[in-house]
């Protein structure tokens, strides 16, 4: 394992990283940093929590022309929360390295007038949502012709049907020689093809971590009828006593109701809604980060790229049909090598998705049940383990027993 000094980074960046106790690069950083420094377009896939943000921030910091007070890097994200997180990482890196690099957050739902004022400070990096950034480029508040690199963080979401046209419009405003970088935990073949069509011919694809999910995450599911799911949720929280837990729902309309129920039963809970304004969402996330709340209820908008320390549990009150969403939800725990637990509360009908996740990501999602205030091995699991590989023998024994019983009755009949 090489150290950070072998990657060709500036001494200021190396010293800054050492202040954060980062001396050894992750696998994705080892592969991506040299490629970005060389100016190559990059597609990078690596498991959640593997250090992808610094994999692109470090080399892009190094490539910024400090004498040019113009936008040189645009970082696009699919959610406001991820954009705010990347912005914080950029500010932290600038502070610890001492490099005079400014970045600003540009997202929808916030005051455009205030954002325009921020842009007057001439930030070299703009982080945010494609729609608002495109709007400000068209208003000539962001100088697109000076952009040297565009990052698509969680790029598979940015290139889906809902977002791709806006993202392509942002890219087209920049010069053709600009560098394009896409990173995500999941990149399907179709998304990779779309990305390569926008990139230069020498683009490289880096795909790491066959397991997709860290091995330090335990996966369980509990069977429950739909009307009993919240009761099971309360029992799980009481039994597991999570330091921080994120509860995922499919329907955002149910978030407020779930939060109210949890608060009524004594849990410090809050919810993150797509319709909340920027300040409300920031307050919610900050409260969760600082421990003022221990339970965060969210839809999949909260699953993408968020790096929150000490999230011990992910609880799926609803299962997503798309396996990729399960991956991104699960990736919110088990960060930086810490142990994590994912518990899905599912109906018998939803169990088919469990099997789908197991097959796709080569993971074991073990059935459990609540008993005496603990998460115990279920009777169904015990039965499966007992009978596995012995079904033929058991069947033969049952058949033999049945045949004896039948023959016995036949003899009795003949005697009569």
Characterization of this structure:
Residues 381-406 and 409-416 have low confidence and may be disordered. The protein folds into 2 domains: 4-207, Rossmann fold (3-Layer(aba) Sandwich); 217-379, Rossmann fold (3-Layer(aba) Sandwich). The protein has an 8-stranded mixed sheet, with helices on both faces. Strands 3-4-2-5-6-1-7 form a 7-stranded parallel sheet, sandwiched between helices. With 416 residues, the chain is of the alpha/beta class. Helix 13 links the parallel strand 12 (313-316) and strand 13 (340-346). Helix 1 crosses helix 4. The termini are far apart. The protein has helices spanning 11-19, 27-37, 52-63, 80-97, 112-119, 130-138, 155-158, 164-172, 189-198, 229-240, 255-264, 278-289, 323-330, 351-361, 379-387, 391-415, and strands at 42-45, 73-76, 103-106, 125-128, 149-153, 179-184, 204-207, 217-223, 245-248, 269-272, 295-298, 313-316, 340-346, 365-371, 374-377. It is built from 16 helices and 15 strands. It is globular and about 65 Å long.
